[in-house]
Specification:
With 275 residues, this protein is of the alpha/beta class. It folds into two domains: 164 residues, Rossmann fold; 103 residues, 6-phosphogluconate dehydrogenase C-terminal like domain (6-phosphogluconate dehydrogenase C-terminal fold). The protein is built from ten helices and eight strands. It has a five-stranded parallel sheet, sandwiched between helices. Strand 1, helix 1 and strand 2 form a beta-alpha-beta unit.
Length: 275
């Protein structure tokens, strides 16, 4: 199996490391130093900044920010064979699937639910996807063989595969990933001077704000690509904050406790086992 990975950042390089010994891996990246490092460490067998390196591949994985995925797919197509599978790792799917479906018959969208707040090749690890979910997002026209080959990919990386409609994927991700990142990012506007009191920062602040250290370029693209769902959630979040503000302003102790208890119950129900 010859696999080319476009983008050797956290996700792309982790895929390469996870597939070590299971496939012949080529890597494409715009940073020459990343290519050199991946070659010297044996993470890839060949590397280049040129998309033509993908020629002769059985599968091409596009692991770049969502704003560039369609553009990369368009650039790859002149170089690959007629039955080469293209998949991607983007955190939004509907627009990407719609666009690439029109360009290439052997495409299926993917999204591994794995990552870290630290981006880049140096943060990659072979077990990043182990035990994690990987979502495959076929359209109505996706070939069954594309789904099978993408399933093989993620299972070889150690992930658990789920198949979901692209639009449903984006709606779910807005709630469970995109909005939490947005709120964590925004919370940093109140923390500009906290470095003065770093010794007082507890686990709660650290855990809540951890994802605010994530890659701004990647998340800018995600927020814009999924803005329909995110804007709706922002309006809903403003409403929740307004309700809390009113209860606090009016010293409505019982109402405030009831609201907080509802939130707390929802959180516990999400993670409690054997319910």
């Amino acid at each position: 199996m010859k696999i080319t990975i476009v983008g050797l950042g956290l996700i792309g390089a982790s895929i390469a490391k996870a597939l070590s010994g299971r496939a012949e891996i080529r890597g494409i990246d715009h940073e020459g130093c990343v290519i050199d490092q991946a070659l010297s460490q044996g993470v890839i067998g060949e590397g280049s900044s040129d998309l033509s390196l993908a020629g002769g591949s059985d599968m091409v994985i596009i692991a770049v920010p969502v704003g560039r995925i369609v553009e990369i797919a368009r650039g790859l197509i002149p170089h690959i064979g007629p039955d080469t599978l293209i998949t991607d790792t983007g955190s939004t799917k509907a627009h990407i699937v719609e666009c690439i479906d029109e360009l290439w018959p052997w495409f299926v969208g993917s999204h591994p639910i794995a990552g870290k707040e630290v981006p880049g090749y140096s943060a990659s690890q072979a077990d990043l996807f182990s035990g994690k979910a990987a979502i495959i997002t076929p359209s109505n026209t996706t070939k069954s063989e594309c789904i099978e080959r993408a399933t093989w990919l993620w299972e070889e990386c150690g992930a658990r595969v789920t198949v979901i409609d692209p639009c449903m994927h984006d709606e779910l991700m807005a709630v469970i990933s995109h909005m939490p990142h947005l709120v964590s990012f925004a919370s940093m506007s109140f923390a500009r001077d906290l470095h003065i009191h770093r010794d007082l920062l507890g686990a709660g602040f650290r855990d809540f704000t951890r994802i605010a250290a994530s890659d701004p370029v990647m998340w800018k693209d995600i927020f814009l690509a999924n803005k329909q769902h995110i804007l709706q959630l922002i309006d809903g979040f403003i409403g929740e904050l307004g309700m809390l503000k009113e209860a606090i302003h009016k010293d409505e102790s019982a109402r405030l406790e009831e609201i907080l208890r509802t939130y707390s119950t929802i959180r516990r129900d999400l993670y409690e086992d054997n319910r």
